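Tokens in:
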């Protein structure tokens, strides 16, 4: 099932995409409420709204918690990151960081280049999973039970801020730096662990081309690792890292500039396209 958050007649709703339009799930006030209830509770009504009449938002427009991310979870990206800045190397454990997301940017929305604070804005096409129920001390072999679904995240980053502060949070948390969407696809649509092709194009040029089977640390590792000492709340978005081909990996680097169009694709999920202003 593909789930979206959308605006219709000035009302924000959640719904399921069908062949005949959007089935509004009016029993839920938000996507996070639907996630907490579980997809089995999302009984589709007979009502359909034509897709042409709605404006699709990010599936979780205003996450109640920071988005959690993995850094350098593809070996090829680890190599290019270390080449760009020698301190950006992967250790013997997963690299975790968070992104502050005041509002996630929808498909078709703008990425602010923030020229007053950075001139090294970069893209990172990623597959993220959404935690389906509160997870605490979950063993790896039970991780699948806690995955609600998958979406695309563009982990936009200001590289010089990221490296200057010796950590990732600030450089990845500027406003509009988390495009997300266009939908959440429920976990039952994929095998586990998933093998999802992920690509990124800038102005039509393919920059990234990878697959989630290349993750160094898989979802089962991440859920077991994080939940060992903290509760992962239902609705938490965890973005699993990006393959090689980000702007900083080129010589010279190919950072984003105003007017660029970034298209992130993930097989079975969809396409997330944003422009840079």
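Residues out:
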């Amino acid at each position: 099932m593909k789930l979206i958050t959308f605006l219709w007649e000035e009302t924000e709703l959640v719904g399921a995409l069908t062949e005949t339009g959007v089935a509004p799930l009016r029993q839920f006030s938000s996507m996070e409420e639907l996630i907490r209830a579980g997809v089995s509770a999302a009984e589709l009504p007979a009502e359909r709204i034509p897709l042409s009449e709605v404006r699709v938002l990010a599936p979780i427009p205003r996450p109640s918690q920071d988005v959690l991310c993995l850094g350098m979870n593809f070996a090829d990206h680890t190599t290019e990151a270390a080449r760009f800045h020698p301190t950006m190397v992967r250790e013997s454990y997963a690299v975790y960081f968070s992104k502050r997301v005041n509002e996630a940017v929808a498909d078709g929305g703008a990425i602010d280049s923030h020229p007053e604070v950075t001139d090294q804005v970069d893209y990172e096409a990623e597959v993220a999973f959404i935690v389906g129920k509160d997870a605490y001390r979950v063993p790896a072999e039970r991780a699948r039970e806690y995955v609600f679904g998958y979406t695309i995240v563009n982990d936009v980053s200001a590289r010089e801020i990221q490296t200057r502060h010796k950590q990732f949070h600030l450089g990845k948390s500027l406003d509009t730096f988390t495009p997300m969407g266009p939908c959440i696809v429920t976990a039952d649509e994929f095998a586990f662990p998933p093998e999802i092709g992920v690509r990124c194009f800038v102005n039509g040029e393919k920059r990234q081309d990878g697959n989630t089977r290349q993750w160094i640390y898989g979802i089962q590792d991440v859920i077991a690792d994080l939940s060992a000492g903290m509760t992962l709340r239902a609705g938490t978005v965890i973005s699993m890292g990006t393959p090689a081909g980000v702007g900083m990996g080129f010589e010279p680097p190919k950072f984003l500039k105003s007017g660029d169009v970034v298209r992130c694709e993930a097989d079975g999920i969809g396409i997330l396209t944003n422009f840079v202003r």
